[in-house]
Amino acid sequence: MWWSAIGCLVTLILNLLVTPLAAAAQPPAKVARIGILSPAAAASTPLSEAIRQGLHELGYVEGQNIVIEYRFAEGRDERLADLAAELVRLKVDVIVAGGVAAIRAAQHATRTIPIVMAGTPDPVAQGFVTSLARPGGNTTGLSLLNVDLPGKRLELLKETVPQSARIAVLANPADRYYAPWMNSLTVAARALGLHLRVVELHRADELDTAFAAMTREDTEALIVLRPASFARAGRRLVELAATHRLPAIYEDRRYVEAGGLMSYGANPDVVFYRAAYYVDRILKGTTPADLPVEQPMKFELVINLKTAQALGITIPPTLLFQADEVMQ
Description:
Helices cover 41% and strands 18% of the residues. With 328 residues, it is an alpha/beta fold. Strands 7-6-8-9-10-11-12 form a seven-stranded mixed sheet, with helices on both faces. Strands 2-1-3-4-5 form a five-stranded parallel sheet, with helices on both faces. Helix 2 (46-57) crosses helix 10, helix 3 crosses helix 4 and helix 5 (149-160) packs parallel to helix 6 (178-192). The longest helix has 24 residues, at 2-25. It is elongated and about 65 Å long. The N and C termini lie far apart (83 Å). 39% of the residues are buried.
């Protein structure tokens, strides 16, 4: 009896001793290091916010199982190469690159660390991937290209302001997508009986001159083909459209949120959010070459009613019914 009691006591003591040793022998959970590379001017951007939200919903918590290294170029693309090199020296597990310049800088910095493209026009034409289905190399992610969208935007603009016949196209002819975009617009304009005039814009500081030219020519509405050369002047663009009382349609909702009349295109926040899926798959062992590049499956129509009222425009009920969001 007493012998059995002593045996139980010994077993209990051994278990108490062995359990901490076994726990100590367990390797610590790996903390993944993610780099975010962007030409933006602050850490609080749609790209970083959406990715953080996506990662959180997938079970990642900053400071616990992931560390995010943010590198922002403050609007100076020439800094991206050095920032990408910093991320490589930190030995991050994956780089999320926002925009063409950031993707290119990341690819120049490394051919081994996985790179997730957070939305870029035509990554195949840019040379970032071999194909959408089989990216090859160390890069995959999300594409935003749809060259037929400008024509659809023109149809929506005409439905909004049916009396408009003289419509300006604000664009940079040096943009690599200028030709297919203009082809889409030309086909739509011919079908709608519209006259289009291209107003060239090569730099953001030409915006005032461009709008003055549109006013002189009695432009009645505006469609914006957003090239990278003036992408960061979006708020100023919206302000000038309001000042010159030009109904305008843009490529995504950020312009409408800033006071633009309407937009039609992929929601960039959804695209950025989806980048978290790629990060998760890569951290769990899938190689970028085995993750097909995704294209947007949904395009949204967003309308700003307050801006419409300021311009004296009544949005047709059919458009309001189609709209994914109507801002008051």
